[in-house]
Amino acid sequence: MEHGTFTDHSSATFSLTEEDHTLANAVRFTLNQDPRVTFCGYSIPHPSDARVNIRVQTTGDPAREVLKDACQDLMLMCRHVRSTFDKAVDEFKISNPVEEMNIGKK
């Protein structure tokens, strides 16, 4: 849900349900890498409430579009990390084959 004004689209607060620090901090980091962002922060209203509020203020671009771009950038980063990890696991498995397990044998 977006909370903002109808006249100034360069700042808004977005409320994400069923999320916590894990996603919020990653989105905040990604947003702060964008030169269009003048301020970004997040808060969790209450520990028992699974909701995160992310505040975005930009140099003039619509905050909604900047947030969308940041989420897409974060997805690309996650894909890169996953593919790098999978490649490293495959290389490890090739260089260190699993030996036969002789359970119960001495």
The helix tally amounts to 2
Binned, the helix content reads: 40-55%
Apparent shape? elongated
- Order the strands across the largest sheet as they lie in space: 1-2-4-3
Please tell me about this protein's structure.
The protein is an alpha+beta fold and 106 residues long. 42% of the residues lie in helices and 24% in strands. The chain has a 4-stranded antiparallel β-sheet with strand order 1-2-4-3, with helices on one face. Strand 3 and strand 4 form a beta hairpin. Helix 1 (21-32) crosses helix 2 (63-95). It starts with a strand and ends in an 11-residue tail after the last helix. Belongs to the archaeal Rpo11/eukaryotic RPB11/RPC19 RNA polymerase subunit family.
Question: Key features?
Answer:
106 residues, alpha+beta, 4-stranded antiparallel sheet, 2 helices, 42% helix, RBP11-like, DNA-directed RNA polymerases I and III subunit RPAC2, protein dimerization activity, transcription
Would you summarize the structure shown here?
Its main location: nucleus. By secondary structure, the protein is of the alpha+beta class.
Give the helix/strand layout.
Blueprint: E1 2-4, E2 11-17, H1 21-32, E3 37-43, E4 51-58, H2 63-95
Antiparallel strand pairs: 1-2, 2-4, 3-4
